[in-house]
Specification:
By secondary structure, this protein is an all-alpha fold. Helices cover 79% and strands 0% of the residues.
Length: 508
C-alpha cells in the first residue's frame, strides 16, 4: 500500500510538470471547429490576440500564472493564418497578418514581416477599405526603411513612395494616422540628407532638410498633438541643429522628459558637431551624454532589480502553486486511499454476506433436495410395498390355486373336507416346494410343536382362508381365529405383537 501511495504522488507531480503541454493541446482542441475553417481561424486569432496582450517585454514569460511563452502567441497566430487560407472573411485575414507582422517585427524577421504586410494590403484592397490600405502601405514603408534603406538610395526612395501612397490613401478624418505618416516621411528625408550617395537621386542635403521641415509643419497642422511625440522632437532637434539653430535645438532637448529621447537627441547633436568641427558643442554633447548614461544606467539597474524581483516573485508563486498542488494531490491520495479501504471493507462485507447467503441457499437447496429424495424414496417404498402386496396376493393366490385341487378332492358331500394322511403329506410337500425348507425350519426352531401344529401352520402359510380351514377342522371360522391366537403363543414371546400370518413369513 505504501508503494502505491508513492507511485500515485509521483504520477501527480509528473502530470503537473506536463501542464504546459497539456494546456497547449487543450487550447488547440478547444479552438478547432470541425467542418468550419473560418470559425477555427477566428478562435485561434482570438487566442493569439489574448496572448499578445498578456506578453510583456520585461519577462521571459507571457504570463507567469499561466506559464505561456511569448512564442506561443506567434505559433497560435500561425495556426490561425493556416486555417484562414482561402477564407472569404478578408477582415479576419487582415487582422491575423497584422498581428503576425507585429510579431515578426519584434523578432527582426523583416522578410517574413514584409510577406504578412503584402497579404494585409491584398486583403485591404479586397475589402475596399482605404484606411486599412493606407495602414498596410505605411507598415510596408516602415519595414523597407528598417531593412537598410538608410544605406541604399533605391530602398530609401521606395520607402518615400510607399509613405506618400499611404498618406494619399488615408481618409481625411484619420488625422492622427496622416500626421504619423507625414512624420515618417520626414524621417526618410532626414535619412536622405545624411546619405551622400542619395543626393544625386533624391536632392541635395539642404533640399532634403527643407522637405523634412515642411513635412513636420504639415504633420503639426494635421494633428497638433504630434508635437508631443518623441519622433517629432528628435526630427525637430535634428533639423534645428543641421540648420545651425543650436539654441533652439538645445531648448527642445532640455524640454524633453524622456531620458532615452534626450540621449538620442544629444547623439544627433554630437554627430553634427563632429561633422562641422564644433568642439565646444561636441564637448557639451559628450558631457550631457555621460550624465544621461549614468541616469540610464541607474534606471536600468533599478528596472533590472525590479525585473529580478518580479521573476523571483513569479518563481516563488510558481513554487507555492507546486507545493499547493502537491498538498492537494497528497490530500486527494489520502481520500482515495480512505475510499479504497472503505470500498474494500464494504466489498469484503458484501462478499462475506453473499457467501453466507449462498451457503444458506445451498444448505436450503440441499435440504429441499434431501426432502425431495426422501419423498421420492417414500413414494418408491410405498410403490414397492404396494407392488409386493400385489405380488404376495398373486403369489398366495397361486399357492391356494395349487392347494385347492387337493382340498376339493377331499371334500365330502356335506361340504366337510376330510384330509387323510396322504393328503396332509401332500400339503406339507407342496408347502416345502413353494416355501423351501418351511416345515424343517419350523420344527427346528420350535421343537415343542406337534405334527398337527405344523400342518395347521402349513395351511396358514399357504394363505388358506379361515372358511376353508373351518371346513377342514369342522369348526366355526371364528374358532379358526382363536386357534391362530393360541398357536401364536407357542412361539417366541417377542413376536406377540405380530399376527401368525406375518410371523410365519420369516420361515419362507
Amino acid at each position: 500500500m505504501k508503494h502505491i501511495f508513492y507511485i500515485i504522488i509521483i504520477a501527480l507531480l509528473v502530470t503537473g510538470c506536463r501542464q504546459e503541454r497539456s494546456d497547449a493541446d487543450a487550447l488547440q482542441k478547444a479552438c478547432i471547429v470541425r467542418g468550419d475553417s473560418t470559425a477555427t481561424a477566428r478562435n485561434f486569432y482570438d487566442a493569439g490576440h489574448r496572448l499578445v496582450k498578456l506578453s510583456t517585454p520585461s519577462d521571459s514569460l507571457a504570463d507567469p500564472a499561466l506559464g505561456i511563452a511569448p512564442d506561443s502567441a506567434l505559433h497560435v497566430l500561425l495556426f490561425a493564418a493556416d486555417y484562414a487560407k482561402g477564407s472569404s472573411d478578408h477582415a479576419l485575414n487582415y487582422n491575423i497578418h497584422r498581428q503576425l507582422a507585429l510579431q515578426y517585427e519584434a523578432k527582426n524577421l523583416f522578410s517574413l514581416q514584409q510577406e504578412s504586410q503584402f497579404t494585409m494590403l491584398a486583403e485591404a484592397r479586397l475589402l475596399a477599405d482605404p484606411y486599412r490600405m493606407a495602414e498596410a502601405t505605411q507598415q510596408m514603408a516602415i519595414t523597407t526603411l528598417a531593412m537598410g534603406a538608410e544605406e541604399d538610395a533605391h530602398q530609401l526612395k521606395d520607402a518615400q513612395r510607399l509613405a506618400r501612397q499611404a498618406y494619399a490613401d488615408a481618409p481625411t478624418d484619420s488625422v492622427e494616422f496622416r500626421a504619423e505618416t507625414l512624420l515618417f516621411l520626414a524621417q526618410t528625408h532626414i535619412a536622405a540628407s545624411s546619405l551622400r550617395q542619395a543626393q544625386d537621386k533624391l536632392g541635395s542635403e539642404q533640399a532634403q532638410t527643407d522637405s523634412a521641415a515642411l513635412l513636420l509643419q504639415r504633420a503639426k497642422e494635421e494633428w497638433p498633438a504630434v508635437v508631443d511625440t518623441d519622433l517629432y522632437r528628435l526630427s525637430s532637434i535634428y533639423i534645428h541643429a543641421r540648420e545651425g539653430r543650436t539654441d533652439e535645438a538645445l531648448a527642445l532637448i532640455h524640454s524633453t522628459d524622456d531620458v532615452y529621447t534626450r540621449m538620442e537627441a544629444w547623439r544627433l547633436v554630437k554627430s553634427l558637431a563632429e561633422e562641422r568641427g564644433a568642439a565646444a558643442l561636441n564637448q557639451q554633447a559628450s558631457d550631457a551624454m555621460l550624465a544621461l548614461a549614468d541616469t540610464i544606467a541607474e534606471r536600468e539597474a533599478s528596472e533590472s532589480t525590479a525585473r529580478i524581483h518580479a521573476i523571483q516573485h513569479a518563481d516563488a508563486l510558481r513554487l507555492l502553486r507546486v507545493e499547493q498542488a502537491a498538498a492537494t494531490a497528497s490530500a486527494r491520495v489520502k481520500w482515495l486511499l480512505a475510499l479504497l479501504v472503505l470500498s474494500l471493507l464494504l466489498g469484503g462485507s458484501a462478499w462475506w454476506a453473499f457467501t453466507l447467503r449462498r451457503k444458506a441457499y445451498s444448505a436450503r437447496m440441499n435440504e429441499l433436495e434431501a426432502l425431495r429424495i426422501a419423498a421420492e424414496a417414500q413414494e418408491g417404498e410405498a410403490a414397492v410395498r404396494e407392488e409386493n402386496m400385489q405380488l404376495q396376493k398373486r403369489y398366495y393366490d397361486h399357492l391356494f390355486a395349487i392347494l385347492l385341487p387337493i382340498l376339493n378332492a377331499c371334500r365330502k358331500k356335506r361340504g366337510h373336507i376330510d384330509l387323510g394322511e396322504d393328503s396332509w403329506r401332500l400339503i406339507e410337500e407342496n408347502t416345502d416346494l413353494v416355501l423351501p425348507g418351511f416345515t424343517a425350519k419350523l420344527r427346528r426352531q420350535n421343537p415343542g410343536l406337534t405334527t398337527d401344529d405344523v400342518r395347521f401352520c402349513c395351511l396358514v402359510a399357504m394363505r388358506v382362508p379361515n372358511s376353508i380351514m373351518a371346513e377342514i377342522y369342522a369348526i366355526a371360522p371364528t374358532s379358526v381365529a382363536v386357534r391362530k391366537q393360541r398357536m401364536k403363543k407357542k412361539f417366541d414371546d417377542r413376536q406377540a405383537e405380530q399376527s401368525l400370518d406375518s410371523y410365519l413369513t420369516q420361515y419362507s
